[in-house]
Amino acid sequence: MLDVLDHGVEEFYLFDAGSIVGDLLMLVPMKVDYGVRTLVYLAQQEGTEFTSTSDIARAQHIPEPYLLRICSELQKSGLIESRRGPQGGHKLTKPSEDISVSDVVKSVDYSLAPIDCVEEPDWCTLSGACSQRELWSDVEMMLLEHLSKVRISELKNQQMIMSEVGAPVKTNF
Question: Which end of the chain has the least Cβ crowding within 10 Å, N or C?
Fold first, then answer.
């Protein structure tokens, strides 16, 4: 991730997707980043019944109120189970090997379209006669296809190695 941009209500990370789609820089919503970080952290807690929202928020540097909304969306999509109360918190509903990054995108943001008209063509006065719309739709499909191959378990394993050695680990995602 290269930079954080603020676009009104939603913040985005500027992501270098060059290895996936050429020399393209694209925006990745913070909800997706926070959702992935949450699931990776929960995957690291295997054996723990439930992990509290405050523990996740503190460890992953996610504002707790925002994390609660993201966890609600992850729960609705069936990726996590949530429980209220003193012994409550969150846990994965299935093994991390069975959860892809694209599952998270579909749960919390529904789109990684690089331009708004891909998802909202009525907002663009040119969408009916625009040669670019299909191009950007294809870019989103390629990215989601790639992310469907990246498993939360792979990110968890990479994170654990990085924590142990204290250095970045190269991957082939």
Answer: N
